């Protein structure tokens, strides 16, 4: 299927809201998007319903790994500041959100798709999560995928964790993976800590490992102390080793308080 036909299909789905079925926003154990249909009105399937709960339930050792992780979710309001300014075309900036999404998905110009992602980033409307996830998975231009990742981070609801973690693991461009690590750190959801720690140990790009370590310091989850302590000794890059030491200090400082 070509990119154009995929995007046209998505445009059709978005325009036919009353008939659409939504795919679950959860992730599989190999960090790809869950294939199951969501149980409306939530954006999650039965297995991933824990993402919608206000209070984290007791952790079941029999649950799916991702479900166990999301059970630690703290659904506080994670509004990340955003002082970025960019002169997007005025007509696009003034367009209603559905039209901006249409441009994000279908415009032939990557500059316009990037600008549409930037406009959606500023609006922080959760209705854009699904199309931004689609772009993060499929747009052929890495700068567009990167802006989609940033936009998802600014929307900031728990539903953006799936797309950000999936792209942190699987995007082919290091700058996109880096944008995901930064966004996850700024959001501060503890559920993302184990993925950031795993990527820290397997990632080839120094600046992605560096941002994973910084993000772990921001999140402050004591469960990843052992990984950070090991990387603080073994990482081939001094800037990463230092970032791991600083993240450890930050985590321990929070525990002492
Ligand atoms: Zn699911």
What does this structure look like?
This protein is mostly helical and 257 residues long. The chain has a domain at 3-17 and 80-187: Alpha Horseshoe (Leucine-rich Repeat Variant). Helices cover 58% and strands 0% of the residues. The protein is built from 13 helices and no strands. The chain has helices at residues 3-15, 65-70, 90-93, 97-106, 110-123, 129-138, 142-155, 161-170, 174-187, 193-202, 206-219, 225-234, 238-256. Helix 10 runs antiparallel to helix 11. The chain is globular. The termini are far apart. Bound molecules: zinc ion (ZN). The site of zinc ion (ZN) has 8 residues, from loops. Residues 24, 26, 34, 36, 44-45, 47-48 line the site of zinc ion.
Helices and strands in order:
Blueprint: H1 3-15, H2 65-70, H3 90-93, H4 97-106, H5 110-123, H6 129-138, H7 142-155, H8 161-170, H9 174-187, H10 193-202, H11 206-219, H12 225-234, H13 238-256
Bound molecules: zinc ion.
Outline of the structure:
The protein has helices at 3-15, 65-70, 90-93, 97-106, 110-123, 129-138, 142-155, 161-170, 174-187, 193-202, 206-219, 225-234, 238-256. By secondary structure, the protein is mostly helical. The longest helix is centred in the last third of the chain and has 19 residues, at 238-256.
Give keywords.
58% helix; globular; mainly alpha; Leucine-rich Repeat Variant; binds zinc ion; 257 residues
Strand percentage:
under 5%
What's the CATH architecture name of the domain at 3-17 and 80-187?
Alpha Horseshoe
Uncertain residue segments: 11-19, 54-76
Q: Shape, please? A: globular
Give the CATH level 1 class of the domain at 3-17 and 80-187.
Mainly Alpha
What is the name of the CATH topology of the domain at 3-17 and 80-187? Leucine-rich Repeat Variant
Bound molecules: zinc ion
Kindly report the oligomeric state of this protein.
Answer: single chain
Radius of gyration: 18 Å
Number of strands: 0
Distance between the termini: 54 Å
CATH homologous superfamily heading of the domain at 3-17 and 80-187: Leucine-rich Repeat Variant
SSE order: HHHHHHHHHHHHH
The averaged pLDDT comes out at 85
> Which class best fits the helix and strand makeup?
mainly alpha
State the share of residues found in helices, binned by percent.
55-70%
User: Counting H and I runs of at least 4 residues, what is the number of helices?
Assistant: 13
Main pleated-sheet profile: none
């Amino acid at each position: 299927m070509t990119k154009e036909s995929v995007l046209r299909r998505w445009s059709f789905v978005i325009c036919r809201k009353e008939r659409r079925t939504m795919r679950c926003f959860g992730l599989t154990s190999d960090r790809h998007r869950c294939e199951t249909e969501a149980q409306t009105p939530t954006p999650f399937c039965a297995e991933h319903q824990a993402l919608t709960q206000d209070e984290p339930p007791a952790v079941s050792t029999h649950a799916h790994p991702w479900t166990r992780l999301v059970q630690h979710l703290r659904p506080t309001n994670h509004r990340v500041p955003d002082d970025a300014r960019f002169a997007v075309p005025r007509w696009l900036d003034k367009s209603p959100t559905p039209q901006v999404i249409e441009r994000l998905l279908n415009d032939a110009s990557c500059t316009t798709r990037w600008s549409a992602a930037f406009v959606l980033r500023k609006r922080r409307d959760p209705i854009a999560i699904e199309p931004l996830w689609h772009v993060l998975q499929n747009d052929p231009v890495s700068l567009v995928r990167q802006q989609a990742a940033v936009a998802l981070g600014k929307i900031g609801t728990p539903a953006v964790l799936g797309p950000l973690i999936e792209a942190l693991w699987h995007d082919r461009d290091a700058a996109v993976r880096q944008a995901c690590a930064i966004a996850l750190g700024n959001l501060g959801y503890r559920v993302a800590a184990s993925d950031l720690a795993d990527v820290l140990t397997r990632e080839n790009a120094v600046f992605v490992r560096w941002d994973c370590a910084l993000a772990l310091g921001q999140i402050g989850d004591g469960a990843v102390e052992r990984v950070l302590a090991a990387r603080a000794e073994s990482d081939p890059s001094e800037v990463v080793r230092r970032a791991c030491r600083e993240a450890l200090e930050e985590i321990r400082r929070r525990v002492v308080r």
